[in-house]
Amino acid sequence: MPEAAYNYAYLDEQTKRMIRRAILKAVAVPGYQVPFGGREMPLPYGWGTGGIQVTAAVIGRNDTLKVIDQGADDTTNAVSIRSFFAKVADVATTTSTEEATIIQTRHRVPETPLRDGQILVFQVPIPEPLRMLEPREIETRLLHALTEYGVMQVSLYENIARHGRIAKTYNYPVMVNGRYIMSPSPIPKFDNPKLDRSPALQLYGAGREKRIYAVPPYTPVKSLDFDDHPFEIERWDECCALCGSRESFLDEMIVDDAGKRMYICSDTDWCGRRQ
Amino acid sequence: MSPSSAIAAGFASPVHDAQRLFRAVLDAFSHPGRIAPIDGAPAGPGGISPATTACLLTLVDHDTPLWLAPELDRPTVHDFVRFHCGAPLVAERADAAFAVLAAGGANPFDGFAVGSDPYPDRSATLLIEVPTLDAGAARTWRGPGIDGARRVAIGGVDAGFWRAWADNHALFPCGVDVAFVCGAQLLALPRSIATED
Asked: Which of the 8 DSSP states describes residue A266?
């Protein structure tokens, strides 16, 4: 049974309606950040308050919830959020990507391909992709309104001038449906191709900044690049030390005081299934 | 009959029914052209379909002014909306966040809020009652949420409607969003979708 002292899924019904309306507008304008009345949640900003509010507004008793943090089901943030919803929303939880109907994620997209009908909820710290280039909200909003994205192209060009390549490795900006530049949240750029024309619905929630945005299924999501410097994902010479995978995102672990390293899959569900 | 008993029933289980029906609506908006069954929607006050009733109960409240087409503007609907949703009923289209219309009216989108370039979300959502969601002249829909193209046939809307829709789509990212409703079914047409013969 859910906690009797709270409404189902923690949020009150009026708040859920407000978030639900914001989600529908976000789906109607893919990549556009819809402001919403973010609530105080029972955990600090930066721990997924935006993602939790989005999940709370969509989740129901028939759902199966998976929560990952950096690909892992067994890290503090993932375990806490999963048990939070098990408690307040009376919902089944899983670590299996295939069984889940809603997957809340911090900083990864699962390796297992998602399917039609699944909802992927991203926890977003800074929703505005132009924020580090233009600190004023009123200006970034105008830049989006006018599709005035030269400043982002210049910043990527400066990367190439300084480093010989686009040095951004995570939170790599994308163009959604040819209209809005969007922050994909701090996922590694390795995951960016999985956002493109995904059959699953992607919802992004930023709690501190109080923004919700979305990418509907089958929507083109293009990572920004240049003709002579095309977008590339990370590659490793090593394979996963546990499952031998060569196609998944690998974490580098230092395993002793001598600096010995091993590489293992960041996605624990994917890795566990292959062992 | 006393005034209170004249008001039609709302959700049997307000929290869980609203959640379930919102998911059906979300599924419809993320897959434009796909018919979403609105199972278990209450019959409503009459004059508006169960799917419209479900949308009002799920999405409309005191924050969202509601506009009703003149032919749906009845005391039973007023009482239902005031009692269950608490939404202000407005006479001007421009003031509405949500609106309920019947298919076939002239200038279906004129006057509704389309949002602004900096805030395209500040636009109206229109619930349009149609006689059928799977018969009529089929059109090809393309856009976010559709894998390639989808053929969709909506009954009760004419060529003038689709010309007005082309103008609405051209406003993107501004523009109104539409949900066609028929009985206990709903089919969404967000502003991002382009249609052709």
From this structure: S
Of these residues, A50, A51, A207, A240, which one is catalytic?
A240
Inspect the interface and report whether the beta carbons of A21 and B123 lie closer than 8 Å: no
Determine the residue of chain B that is closest to A25 in CA distance: B121
Q: Residues A43, A49: contact at Cβ < 8 Å?
A: yes
Taking CB atoms and an 8 Å limit, are A8 and B118 in contact across chains?
Answer: no
Domains in chain B, ordered, with CATH?
14-191 (3.40.50.11310)
Active-site residue flag, A243: yes
| A130 token code pair | 């132009």
What is the β-pairing status of strands A174-176 and A119-123? unpaired
Determine contact, residues B158/B131, Cβ cutoff 8 Å. Answer: no
Cis peptide before A113 (omega within 30 of 0): no
Q: ipTM score here?
A: 0.97
Record: contact A23-B19, CB cut-off 8 A: no
Residue B75: exposed, middle, or buried by beta-carbon count in 10 A (0-12, 13-18, 19+)? exposed
The token pair at B98 is 């949500």
Catalytic site includes residue A205: no
| CA B41/CA B17 separation, integer angstroms | 8
B66 CB contacts (<8 Å, ≥6 apart)?
A: B56, B60, B81, B85, B87, B88, B89, B90, B96, B97, B98, B99, B100
Band the pLDDT of A1: cuts 50, 70, 90.
Answer: low
How far apart are the C-alpha atoms of B195 and B161, rounded to whole Å?
11
pTM tops 0.95, yes or no: yes
